[in-house]
Amino acid sequence: MRFVVVTGMSGSGKATAMKMLEDEGYYCVDNLPVHLIDKFMELVFMPASEISKVALGLDVRADKSFAYVEEVLAALRKKGYNYEILFMDASDEVLIKRYKETRRAHPVAPEGRVEDGIHKEREILKGIKAKSDYVIDTSHLLTRELRQELVRIFQDNQHYNSLMISVTSFGFKYGIPSDADLVFDVRFLPNPYYIDELKHQNGNDKPVQDYVNSFPQTKEFMDRLSDMITFLIPYYIKEGKNQLVIAIGCTGGHHRSVTLANDLYARLKDKGDYGLKLYHRDILNDSRQYT
User: What one-character DSSP code corresponds to residue 106?
Assistant: First the structure.
């Protein structure tokens, strides 16, 4: 029997995760009254039960005091019931954006500000998040990427990557990414924009890559950067960090930053117990607009 408790921040993708688990053959029950959880556990764990995979969705609306939910789960653990906790999360900025797009009221602050509801809910859930087996931050995950992560953990039983690293290129003229943890400015490198045959290409094109990588300072910078990131990653994991955004910026986000973001991604790929994603935030902006 595999029993998964799905919880987390409202708007982080709990309902989507439950639907995906159901598609993978899990018997899913959402927001079961708290006083029925132990009885439900007894039934599904009975030797004669034909159910082998269960997902139980719980959120702050399950009970007026979520602390009681934690007590019930702890008591069931002591009784010998084995379960895993999947915590769905996202940054405050992303959650606010999602609520504004759907024009929904936050369940913790139905008549107040969404920001206040998010902060209150995060405080309520900090205990169960700390006890969770898996924390998935959906701030930058596409729906198909979330499905891949869930299948990898709950269907293929592969190793769980507790840290998701996002490497993103950007243009300073469009602003520094608001969620960046580490920002690196590569405007010290010669700019391919001023080479006529390279101006309208980008860092995904080999001629631009060859030009940017032709300078010795490029290789030295990338060697030092990758060494530092490799040094930091185990300590971020140890401290329980779930999301690390590394932003590499040039003037317009087309040439130098794209080239170096691609290089860093290649250097970090398949090198440790972490997930890795690559973004080019401003590559579609018109390169003719900057100098």
Answer: B
